[in-house]
Specification:
2 copies of one chain form a homodimer. Chain A is an alpha+beta fold. Chain A has 15 helices and 31 strands. In chain A, the strands form 7 sheets. Chain A has an 8-stranded antiparallel β-sheet with strand order 29-28-31-26-25-24-27-30, sandwiched between helices. In chain A, strands 20-19-18-13-12-11-23 form a 7-stranded parallel β-sheet.
Amino acid sequence: MVALGVVIGRVVIQDVRPRTPTGAFPAKAAVGEPVTVSADVFRDGHDVLGARARWRMQGERRWNDVPMRETGNDRWEAVVRPPAAGILQLVLEAWTDRLATWRRDITVKRQAGQDVEVELEEGARLLDEAATRAPKRDRSKVDAAAATARDATQPVARRVAGALEADVVEIMTGTPDPRDLTRVTPPPIRVDRRRALSSAWYELFPRSEGGFEGAAKRLRAVAEMGFDVVYLPPIHPIGHTARKGRDNTLDAGPDDPGSPWAIGSEEGGHTAVHPELGTIEDFERFVADAEGLGLEVALDYALQCSPDHPWVREHPEWFHHRPDGSIKYAENPPKKYQDIYPINFWPDDDGDRVALWEACRDVLEFWIGHGIRLFRVDNPHTKPLAFWEWMLGEVKEAHPDALFLAEAFTRPKMMAKLAEVGFSQSYTYFTWRTEKRELAEYLTELTSPPLADYMRPNFWPNTPDILGGPLRGGTPAAFKIRLLLAATLVPSYGIYSGYELCENEPASEVNEEYLRSEKFEIKHRDWGRADSLAPWIARVNDIRRRHPAFAELRNLRFHASRNDRVLAYSKTTGDDVVLVVVNLDPTQPHQDTLDLDMGVLGWPWGTPLDAHDELTGESYTWRTSTPYVRLDPAREPAHVFHLRPAK
Amino acid sequence: MVALGVVIGRVVIQDVRPRTPTGAFPAKAAVGEPVTVSADVFRDGHDVLGARARWRMQGERRWNDVPMRETGNDRWEAVVRPPAAGILQLVLEAWTDRLATWRRDITVKRQAGQDVEVELEEGARLLDEAATRAPKRDRSKVDAAAATARDATQPVARRVAGALEADVVEIMTGTPDPRDLTRVTPPPIRVDRRRALSSAWYELFPRSEGGFEGAAKRLRAVAEMGFDVVYLPPIHPIGHTARKGRDNTLDAGPDDPGSPWAIGSEEGGHTAVHPELGTIEDFERFVADAEGLGLEVALDYALQCSPDHPWVREHPEWFHHRPDGSIKYAENPPKKYQDIYPINFWPDDDGDRVALWEACRDVLEFWIGHGIRLFRVDNPHTKPLAFWEWMLGEVKEAHPDALFLAEAFTRPKMMAKLAEVGFSQSYTYFTWRTEKRELAEYLTELTSPPLADYMRPNFWPNTPDILGGPLRGGTPAAFKIRLLLAATLVPSYGIYSGYELCENEPASEVNEEYLRSEKFEIKHRDWGRADSLAPWIARVNDIRRRHPAFAELRNLRFHASRNDRVLAYSKTTGDDVVLVVVNLDPTQPHQDTLDLDMGVLGWPWGTPLDAHDELTGESYTWRTSTPYVRLDPAREPAHVFHLRPAK
């Protein structure tokens, strides 16, 4: 007795996207995001195939059907727009479309002048069969086509035309034929709320604004700049043992506030608020004020302890111990971080591990209980991936709207894996990608499969730890260039406060940090300075909001140009087409001739274009796909064009 | 209670190669082939990892262990050389190497002048633990290292050195630590006999040599040319209904022999021998003669029938029927192939399908019973993949040495899928890749993962169906160029007889076939012609035999050069390094300056090289990695250099 081919159906469906590399975790999408579901679909021989994607949100009963179309080389695709957050389930089906095959063949034979009498009867039989599967209201049409094919009183041309009637074709295309039907169920897709994909972050130290009350006064300015997330470094009590002083020195004076990442003191740990910032009620008011201005507050989830953290006394078993009885502080030999004890996430005793992991979860639950749904996770790559797999699974199960930004400037494989196991967004290497070619290569990697199927970049031109590349001693033009790239290349980006004042003093020639880092001291800034970039940033964020193309990740395409300091890229979503042209050199004007790919822009070659620069308000009409541009960084280092066919 | 991370262990092992795209079928290797087993291996934090590959042939009890080494970007690899044909099972293990981590850290701390008293005790404890896992005979050495670390009578430098002793490092590296151990079992690898990877085929029509007896006389010449496979088109009775005449015409005369692919007549079907070729005993003698000369005979497995095939009468249910009662002949509208009935591989009745598939298997079993283990499969892409999955599985289970060459000049996805489901070798698009850039791109695709993990190319400059590109009206130089490329780019290649006589007349300007195709008539050739390429082909095949580098697939690397008609590539296996430089233009001499990648060749930059041209016998000494070459196709269109460091 012959066993069936156990793996392969008549039609092959394989290499389904989106997916994660292992398929063991869901790929990612956001509400309303156009998700291209694609797969290889083929079978033996030369028959015409049909394919469709069926999808539904977990918990729904009804499947939604979208026909798949071949895009070349046996690749088929359909676009799905998830209507809500949750788990999107997918089923792909493909089958032999016998009617379409017959239609193709009889058409060719007719054109070659061959006799098709027998073919007409074959077609009539296929239509008879199709009628049994057609939607009820359409069956009579299909039956009529079959009758016409058989109607010997009519000329052959009329009979063929009747059997091929467009209406009937439409009715039957996309209706699976149960014979030869192959069905696959790819891993589901996690649909997050929109902010997981598109967000503009502003990081500030509330203690530099006078605690929560003072920081609340800054919120209007942050909102006016057009940000939608305000992210606070840890707001918990800070340890005093081995506290770091100004500029990361070892001998803190009595007035040195210490690093907010040295979490925990006698006044509490990860669920306490630093008394100098205010009370938990002050914090709640701050969150409410932010919300009133359209700002979501993100907190820092930094799983480490100062030597004074309550966990050190209560749970010494959660830390690493040395033979001399001491608890191991953090180190990266030969560097020592005596003000921080790393947690031992995998204690030998499994009960200890369970208690620790639950305690870590309870920290998140505490802040979720206070209305927080957005967490920036400090150094996730130094905690076990299994911990994140469990933690993100647990928390998202209970709170599907909770989102996590991974601060892992680590090696590529680990960065990607953290995204795969469930982080919603990821810091990236953007800070270190400054040249035209490396930006184009890196962005192509970030916005295409396999990575874009499950990792969402969040671009930070600066952070409290990193004053990088062109920003070191940089001019306002440099600050504009880096922010504009971050804000328009990908849908999520963020800056650390002070950026708008072009703070540019590096700690040293070789040290990537800031001089007089805010991590170790309180900063007093003149936010009202006339040369602040705040109004310009507001303009950029306003452009981002008005153009849905900037809210997508997978729609970025680069366009060729000759000058290696000029980067040109477009983004398209529906009718919205934007073209950004950036002079990467803050020191001098550059000119260039672009070579726009009209196919990518979605218009026929030769279409004249209206190009409205949203930054300057200037408009141009281009009658060529090779427009000339000149960008003077002293004025504006970039064009952000809204493109439309000229009237 | 906390559930464990169900998917991820402490150490991640992922993206294991070799593998097929779906992982549902075994990847491929050949006996003695160096197989690079690789995977991403990483964990949280900065600890040093250890990893190993364990392998054994299915049926063996003992595992063989090979340490894996990092090659960069968290990619680890080990090389396995399968000792025998069969199924190679793999297990990969990775773990935290605590001892190595400690060694790294204490070394850095010592260099920074830090106190390491506590670290020495930490090290001693790690060594105590290591001793329990060390091979018994080495335990005392590990214990001694621990004692030295603790020996307060010694200076610290001595204690550190004692704990870090090279012997102990070697003992413990590669020994898994059961804590944090991650183990994965990737899909197994099918190990075929060597010929699956490396083979030189010669195709001939025995009827043109006077049947098996006459063809046997040609075998010595074929063996002397250095081929190791002689492949015969179908040797079965040929149908007379709608038999094709000379040049594929519709009106065959009484003397026209018909196409051997129109299989079956009253004299029998796929298990019969055409009486004009001889008897089955004659065939057996032919096979024995071939074997005596070191030649393996390959038969054609062409699953289609002439209208006169016994199956048409005995099993009409295995064919497609039309409404007028006729059996459907093969067609590719508007083209008709009335001399061939395609088989319906998926009859509606499952019992019919079982009977058909078994009958197809019995055909193979019949010829295997007559000593044949090599089959060239005609048009496998027009038969269901599920059929091949079952058929190849069944036959290889019973006859692990059976090999199958897929003649599927079809679309890329189907070509790859046929390889995935079990075909041993594949025809390719080589015939249509003639320019430098397209050859380099296509060969890189064919010789690298993912494709090279499971698909083995077999390059045919010509076939009875295809007289392509530069061979159409081509000069002897064109024939040399295309054969040399086929024979040296990949380890398996073949030619169809007549190639050595530079038969070059195309059927027409647009038709890729031969004029007066041997498929439809008997050819009489003057094999002894003075201008035959046979001696030159013998030289090429002799070079192939003497250089193991030509017997590998995955070792091909291209080297830069300036002239776009000159292609340079090297292959390396162990000490054997060959460099081929081909003038792709048969019409005129070309010169070029190569830019050899010494890293790829395996020698330090600046190493002077002896380059011995195996084709001409000339030798050069290169004191630069940018040697000059000049290739005159009128003399030799290529260099085949054996490279060695100059003495």
